[in-house]
Specification:
Keywords: Membrane, Transmembrane, Transmembrane helix. The chain contains 1 helix and no strands. By secondary structure, it is an all-alpha fold. The chain is rod-shaped, with a radius of gyration of 28 Å.
Length: 62
């Protein structure tokens, strides 16, 4: 009887550990994707607000 209870406890703990690993992995994936998306958005916004220099205004200095 005691062995069955120990086995059941270990199974429950193993399932709980696996579920927690899935949750943590999902969180890491989400945060990585959010950072990647935000980095792209910041770069796009920075390029949109950067002053553009026309080719005629760009002259080589001698």
């Amino acid at each position: 009887m005691e062995t069955a209870l120990n086995n059941q406890t270990f199974v429950i703990l193993a399932v709980l550990a696996a579920a927690l690993m899935v949750v943590v992995t999902g969180g890491v994936v989400y945060l990585t994707a959010a950072e990647w998306r935000d980095r792209r958005r910041r770069k796009r916004d920075q390029e949109a607000t950067a002053p553009t220099i026309k080719k005629t205004q760009r002259k080589k200095k001698k």
